[in-house]
């Protein structure tokens, strides 16, 4: 693998995380528990899809095969998507969505802080832009974790159950392989190992305020970064890709 | 002969489709204008990553310059990232008159459940207002309500 191939793969991974989570969160449009939350979630989805667009634009430029951002977003096969399993998990109830978002936002904030110092100026620029939005997302999801965890008995039990279910997907956020190794040497990629302790301590701090406990079962599931997805991914892609598959090259 | 001043002046005729009282100079999204013998380049930057207004703004710029028979190239840049500090004083006054509260100095976003920023009501000027939701009608706004005159209003939230 040469440097160009590594940058392409690396950029697609970030783009896919944003796209698939953005798609999932957008499914809440018109279904939010209250109007304000409906608007909040769709705004967050819009930010994520905007970030995905910027990363896909750059990926298409690096790939240099005449493909567009839309080709990459809509016309790849399931195994070509490299997002982490966490982001493709179903929305479930509001607590499930908030727990998924919280784990992701905590990671993304420190990740973008680090990536904005990347030697790759394009990635650094997108990260710098995305970071400002991610700060709002993290505030939103953190406050909800505390409200639900330290709320009623029912909300506490429900969000604890969401946390227990999603915990096994959190370690994959820190997945690294030869792509990362090659690019860390070039000061392009972020050494994810260095973000782990701050992720853990932030999650711990919020969980304490939320009277939630961190699951003790340490078993972890991974595969997304290699294109091996959970059963939910196919359904998400079916909806995401439907228009372009049914009516190739159609324009809005 | 086209001058740089002329181009800057023309750009004040392009408005943000979502906040139609603000032109793109007031909004601070035009970063530079370069002019040489056979080419003119305007560099703009988006407010938010997913801002749907960007495409319309680019088209509006192209259309306007075509009418004036000036050929331009538009480039979009992400860095340095846009901040609400770039909204001009003029722009802030226009927002207020339009009924949207302009950005205030906000507290650190890492403080959870912090007291919401005090935002004066653009209608009755009272400071007795409350935040309804941090996320409003577009990505760049929060939703507030005035406790005095009861007017619900948009607040252009601080982005730094």
What does this 3D model show about the protein?
The complex is a heterodimer of chains A (252) and B (160). With 252 residues, chain A is mostly helical. Chain A has helices spanning 3-26, 35-63, 69-74, 85-88, 94-115, 121-149, 153-166, 178-185, 196-209, 232-246. The longest helix of chain A is centred in the N-terminal third of the chain and has 29 residues, at 35-63. The radius of gyration of chain A is 18 Å and the shape is globular. Chain A starts with a helix and ends in a 6-residue tail after the last helix. In chain B, strands 6-9-8-7 form a four-stranded mixed sheet. In chain B, strands 3-4-5 form a three-stranded mixed sheet, with helices on one face. The mean pLDDT of chain B is 92. In chain B, a hairpin with a 5-residue loop joins strand 8 and strand 9. Chain B starts with a helix and ends with a strand. Helix content of chain B is 21%, strand content 26%. The longest helix of chain B is centred in the middle third of the chain and has 15 residues, at 53-67. Chain B is elongated and about 55 Å long. With 160 residues, chain B is an alpha/beta fold. Chain B contains three helices and nine strands, in the order αββββαβαββββ. Chain B has helices spanning 4-11, 53-67, 89-98, and strands spanning 15-16, 19-23, 30-36, 39-44, 73-76, 100-101, 129-133, 141-146, 152-156. The interface between A and B is medium-sized, with 33 and 28 residues.
Give the topology, please:
The complex is a heterodimer of chains A (252) and B (160).
Chain A: H1 3-26, H2 35-63, H3 69-74, H4 85-88, H5 94-115, H6 121-149, H7 153-166, H8 178-185, H9 196-209, H10 232-246
Chain B: H1 4-11, E1 15-16, E2 19-23, E3 30-36, E4 39-44, H2 53-67, E5 73-76, H3 89-98, E6 100-101, E7 129-133, E8 141-146, E9 152-156
Parallel strand pairs in B: 4-5, 6-9
Antiparallel strand pairs in B: 1-2, 3-4, 7-8, 8-9
């Amino acid at each position: 693998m040469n440097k160009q191939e590594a940058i392409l793969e690396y950029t697609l991974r970030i783009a896919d995380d944003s796209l698939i989570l953005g798609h999932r969160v957008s499914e809440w449009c018109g279904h939010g528990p209250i109007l304000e939350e409906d608007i909040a979630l769709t705004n967050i989805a819009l930010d994520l899809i905007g970030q995905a667009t910027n990363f896909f634009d750059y990926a298409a430029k690096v790939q240099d095969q005449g493909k567009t951002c839309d080709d990459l977003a809509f016309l790849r096969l399931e195994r070509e998507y490299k997002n982490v399993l966490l982001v493709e998990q179903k929305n479930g109830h509001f607590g499930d969505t908030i727990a998924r978002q919280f784990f992701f936002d905590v990671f993304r904030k420190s990740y973008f802080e680090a990536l904005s110092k990347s030697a790759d100026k394009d990635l650094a620029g997108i990260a710098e832009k995305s970071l400002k939005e991610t700060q709002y997302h993290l505030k939103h999801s953190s406050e909800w974790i505390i409200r639900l965890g330290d709320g009623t008995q029912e909300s506490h039990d429900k969000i604890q159950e969401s946390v227990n279910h999603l915990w096994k997907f959190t370690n994959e956020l820190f997945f690294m392989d030869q792509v990362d190794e090659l690019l860390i040497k070039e000061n392009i990629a972020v050494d994810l190992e260095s973000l782990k302790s701050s992720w853990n301590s932030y999650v711990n701090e919020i969980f304490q305020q939320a009277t939630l406990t961190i699951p003790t079962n340490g078993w972890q599931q991974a595969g997304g970064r290699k294109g091996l997805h959970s059963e939910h991914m196919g359904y998400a892609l079916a909806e995401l890709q439907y228009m372009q598959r049914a009516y190739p090259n159609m324009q809005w | 002969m086209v001058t740089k001043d002329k181009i800057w002046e023309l750009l004040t005729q392009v408005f943000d489709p979502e906040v139609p009282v603000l032109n793109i100079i007031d909004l601070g999204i035009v970063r530079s204008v370069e002019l040489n013998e056979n080419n003119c380049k305007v560099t703009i930057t988006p407010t938010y990553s997913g801002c749907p207004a960007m495409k319309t703004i680019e088209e509006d710029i192209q259309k306007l310059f075509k009418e004036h028979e000036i050929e331009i190239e538009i480039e979009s840049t992400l860095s340095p990232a846009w901040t609400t500090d770039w909204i001009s004083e003029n722009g802030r006054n226009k927002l207020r008159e339009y009924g949207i509260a302009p950005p205030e100095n906000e507290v650190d976003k890492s403080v959870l459940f912090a007291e919401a920023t005090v935002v004066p009501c653009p209608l009755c000027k009272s400071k007795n207002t409350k935040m309804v939701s941090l996320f409003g009608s577009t990505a760049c706004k929060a939703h507030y309500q005035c406790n005095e005159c009861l007017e619900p209003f948009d607040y252009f939230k601080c982005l730094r």
